[in-house]
Amino acid sequence: MFVYAHRGASALAPENTLLAIKQASEAGADGIEFDVYQHQNEFILIHDRWVDRTTNGKGTIDSMSFEQVRSLDAGKGEQIPTLSEVLALIGARCQINIEMKGVHDIELLIDYVAKHCRQHKVPSSNILFSSFDHHVLKHLKRYRPDARIGALTAGNPLDYALFAQQLDAEFANIDLTFVNQAFIEDAKQRGLKVGVYTVNHTEDLDKMKSWGVDAVFCNDPGEALAIINGG
Ligand code: G3P
Ligand code: CA
């Protein structure tokens, strides 16, 4: 079972910062997941549209200049990173899951990622794009049919993983609260991989492994790897 660091190693460092990414990489995570918002022609790592929860600032990202965004303290003195900085830091070390939270120009994002992957020697095959917004994923696939995508759901739909198959996704990623064996079996029958977020406890990690889940998103990837490989 594959371990993605969730928002970087967010149990050990401020989420979605270079420090969290670095610690995830050092912990040997198979992949690193993080959240991306568009800010004008730049892409930055942050989970919420409002900066209040994760930084020392107040307000929405789009009400701020890029300089204001970069002047915020995202915890332990860390800046809100750009996607380019993160791609440079991860390089070819592990898989990369870019979750699109607030991206309104998909073509710009795809072209930005392609350019910075070339620049920082990140294999494009290591990139997986994901979103809860299935319209965004559909748009992305239309623009770049060979892009790898993960379709997210925070619930268990009536027709299980059909949404992910319809999007030609590689992964159907579901909330731990709602995942069950029926969802996993349905996804497998459709040729999909299943990812589950956020899995932090031994009991849940063991259950996901026994259910044949392909990937888990964990706040402490080192600990999760030790539990999975030790069991
Ligand atoms: O990609 C899985 C997970 O990160 C989705 O939920 O709220 O942590 O971004 P959230
Ligand atoms: Ca996320």
Summarize the structure.
The protein is an alpha/beta fold and 231 residues long. It is built from nine helices and nine strands.
Helix and strand arrangement:
Blueprint: E1 2-6, H1 18-26, E2 31-39, E3 42-45, H2 66-71, H3 83-90, E4 95-102, H4 106-120, E5 127-131, H5 134-143, E6 148-153, H6 162-166, E7 171-175, H7 181-189, E8 193-197, H8 202-210, E9 215-218, H9 221-230
The protein binds SN-glycerol-3-phosphate (G3P) and calcium ion.
Indicate the multimeric state: single chain
**What name goes with the CATH superfamily?**
Phosphatidylinositol (PI) phosphodiesterase
The total number of structural domains is 1
Could you say what the CATH topology is called? TIM Barrel
* Main structural class: alpha/beta
Order of helices and strands: EHEEHHEHEHEHEHEHEH
**In CATH terms, what is the architecture?**
Alpha-Beta Barrel
The N- to C-terminal Cα distance equals: 12 Å
Query: Biggest sheet, open or closed, and with what strands and sense?
Result: 8 strands, parallel, barrel
| Helix content, binned percent | 25-40%
Shape: globular
Low-confidence stretches: none
State the strand order across the main sheet.
1-2-4-5-6-7-8-9
Q: Care to describe what's here?
A:
The protein has 231 residues and is an alpha/beta fold. The chain has one domain (2-228): Alpha-Beta Barrel (TIM Barrel). Helix content is 35%, strand content 22%. The protein contains nine helices and nine strands. It has helices at 18-26, 66-71, 83-90, 106-120, 134-143, 162-166, 181-189, 202-210, 221-230; strands spanning 2-6, 31-39, 42-45, 95-102, 127-131, 148-153, 171-175, 193-197, 215-218. Strands 1-2-4-5-6-7-8-9 form an eight-stranded parallel beta barrel, surrounded by five helices. Helix 3 runs parallel beside helix 4 (106-120). The termini are close together. The model has no long low-confidence stretch (mean pLDDT 98). Residues 6, 33, 35, 47, 99, 130, 152, 173, 197, 217 line the site of SN-glycerol-3-phosphate.
